[in-house]
Each structure stands twice: as structure tokens, then as C-alpha cells.
Design goal:
This protein is of the alpha/beta class. Helices cover 40% and strands 20% of the residues. It folds into two domains: 190 residues, NAD(P)-binding Rossmann-like Domain (Rossmann fold), CATH 3.40.50; 81 residues, UDP-galactose 4-epimerase, domain 1 (Alpha-Beta Complex). α4 runs parallel beside α5.
């Protein structure tokens, strides 16, 4: 299968590209720079220059392949306005990609976040959050899944708050960077809230499985760890960086504060049973031991 992928040079995208190539798929990836294009070529993928705002590029690429995987997102959480702009940009890009596939029977796999469900781990059947600073992402994903009624084999892989590899990535990576900058490893509230996680290489295998075989209109959970307490995550970060650990108010984290403080464990039982997905790589707490002081 020839596959167009956005976000193919990020932490998750790099793993997805490698996974696709290892299973005899051809990859055409969106590249925002010459350096990104060169990295893609080095590992055997093709590239097309552009970004999520280049709708003509997206339309042309989606129309020339057998399937699409969408991963790109402008991760600018510097202000509420920046978050809103990133969400709007992604929604517009997904609308273009989906429209290019209408009536074709071809697959598109988009990404979402696992939802937070009070009192229990989120399951694949639970609805996405449509409110808050990133609620627009949920609405965009639902619109893509709705293309199942228009001849598109659309599916969504829901990613946990931390997708990690070699001790970096996701919300845990953000906390690590904050600790390096501030000299203290901090966590919001009492730290008892749980965050799910998955290794990037395990997430990549699920994207491939969804591309190859997921029924139209379905959602899947790329969850390797159902939920680690944030305090436990930060204690590993502090120990590896040889820094003190402290609790701080959620507002310390700006637009992300409300998300960081939420208890949000998630299950992948149905994903494992129905798609045959089996995570095999290190857990988050084990992977964080790779953090270098």
C-alpha cells in the first residue's frame, strides 16, 4: 500500500514510517523543511514539501495514494490563542484530506487523545471530549469518522497523554523539560491522578494495523500502561535529574493545567482483542530510567 502521512518526522511519526516500511508499504510523507525531507529519504520514504496549511498539497497527496495516516499537530501551548489556532489548522487539514477520499473506499487513520471518564478507565466506546481548550480536536476526529457514511474507511487511533521513547515524549517529556529549566521536578495537585502511556514503537504498530484492517467508523486505544500516578512519574524524573520534587497548583502549567490535573486512565482491552495488537516495548516508568542528568 502507498501511504501518505502527515507528521512523519516527529517522535510518533518516525516510528510509524519505520513500521510501515518494515511491512512492505511505501511512504509519502509531508515535510516542512529540507532537513525533514532528507531524514525521510535516508530511511527509504518519499517526501512532499508543505505543512498542514498547504491544502492543495494535502489534496494532491491524498488523491495519489492508497491510504492516509494523519499525525501532524502544531504543538504550541504557549497561550489559549495559540492552542485554538493549532486546533483550527488541524481541523481544516483533516477536512481537506477526508474530502479527497470520499467515495474511494480507501482508509484514513487519524489520531485523537484517550478521553477522561470519571471513576474508571476510558474505553474505546467512550465519546471524545468536545469541550475545553482542545475539544475542537475531538470534533474534527468525529467528522472524519463520519466519512464512513461517504465511502471512506475512516478510523481513529486514540493516543494516551504520554507517547514515549528513550525517556522522552508526551506529557512526561514536558515535565522533564520543565524540571531541567526550573531546577525542580514539579507535578500538579497531589499527583494521585493517573496518566496512560504507550511506547512510540507500540503505537506505530497499531496505526499500521488500523490502516490495514480497521473497519470504517471505529476507534482504537494505543494504551500500553493503563495509568501511572503523576507523582510516581515525576519522582523518577527528579531522581534521574538529581533534582527536588514538589507539588504545585495546576495553574502553574497554564493552558495545560486543567488537563494535567485530571485523572484519566484508559484501557486498550478491546483493541488488543479485536485487532490483535500486543504492546511489547518498555513501560513509561521503565523508559524514564533512560533520562540522562
Amino acid at each position: 500500500m502507498r501511504v501518505f502521512i502527515t507528521g512523519g518526522t516527529g517522535l510518533i511519526g518516525t516510528a510509524v514510517v519505520a513500521e510501515l516500511l518494515a511491512h512492505d508499504h511505501q511512504v509519502l510523507a509531508l515535510a516542512r523543511s529540507d532537513a525533514s525531507a532528507q531524514r525521510l529519504h535516508t530511511i527509504g520514504a518519499e517526501s512532499i514539501r508543505g505543512d498542514l496549511g498547504d491544502h492543495d498539497v494535502l489534496r494532491t497527496a491524498a488523491g495519489a495514494v492508497d491510504g492516509v495516516i494523519h499525525l501532524a499537530f502544531r504543538n504550541d501551548f504557549s497561550s489559549p490563542e495559540a492552542v485554538a489556532a493549532s486546533v483550527a489548522e488541524e481541523a481544516a487539514a483533516l477536512e481537506v484530506l477526508g474530502a479527497a477520499l470520499v467515495g474511494s473506499g480507501r482508509p484514513i487513520v487519524t489520531c485523537a487523545g484517550t478521553p477522561a471518564v470519571p471513576g474508571r478507565p476510558a474505553m474505546e466506546s467512550d465519546p471524545l471530549n468536545l469541550d475545553g481548550p482542545v475539544g475542537g480536536r475531538g470534533r474534527a476526529v468525529n467528522a472524519v469518522l463520519g466519512l464512513a457514511d461517504q465511502g471512506v474507511r475512516a478510523s481513529a487511533v486514540r493516543l494516551p497523554r504520554t507517547v514515549h521513547k528513550d525517556g522522552t515524549g508526551g506529557f512526561a517529556g514536558i515535565l522533564t523539560n520543565i524540571a531541567r529549566t526550573n531546577g525542580t521536578a514539579i507535578y500538579p495537585g497531589d499527583g494521585a491522578q493517573r496518566w496512560p502511556a504507550v511506547h512510540a514503537d507500540d503505537a506505530a504498530s497499531l496505526f499500521r494495523l488500523a490502516l490495514e484492517s480497521a473497519p470504517a467508523g471505529t476507534s482504537w486505544h494505543a494504551v500500553g500502561d493503563e495509568g501511572d500516578r503523576v507523582r510516581d512519574i515525576v519522582e523518577v524524573i527528579g531522581r534521574r535529574l538529581e533534582l527536588p520534587v514538589a507539588s504545585v497548583p495546576p495553574e502553574t502549567f497554564g493552558p495545560l493545567g486543567a488537563i494535567f490535573v485530571a485523572d484519566q486512565p484508559a484501557s486498550s482491552r478491546r483493541t488488543r482483542e479485536e485487532l490483535g495488537w500486543t504492546p511489547t516495548h518498555p513501560s513509561l516508568l521503565a523508559d524514564l530510567e533512560n533520562i540522562a542528568p
